[in-house]
TrEMBL record:
Superkingdom of the source species: Bacteria
InterPro entries: CCB3/YggT
GO cellular component: membrane
Name of the protein in its database record: Conserved hypothetical membrane protein
Family: Belongs to the YggT family.
Transmembrane residue ranges: 12-32, 52-74
UniProt keyword Chloroplast present: no
Upper lineage: Bacteria, Bacillati, Cyanobacteriota, Cyanophyceae, Synechococcales
Keywords annotated in UniProt: Membrane, Transmembrane, Transmembrane helix
Amino acid sequence: MLSEIFAVLGQTLSIYSFILIIRILLTWFPGIDWSNGILSALTSITDPYLNIFRGIIPPIGGFDISSLLAFLLLNVIQNLITNLQYASLGYG
């Protein structure tokens, strides 16, 4: 039961990582209308998480590199959940 919870959490974080990648790639296109319904939903899902890191790392040379730290932390959490999932199965 516990391993299934960790599996769902891991899959959720994988989906969130994918959404985060899309959000960051779309920032490379300056003419995008962010008030579009889908894009607005995308920003409302990802910006609260990204804003945490934007407060820590200011843009350098006009580039927002805070997303690198955001991905790094998300990856660490995903690895931790995967390890917990295997440990709950008795493999660890």
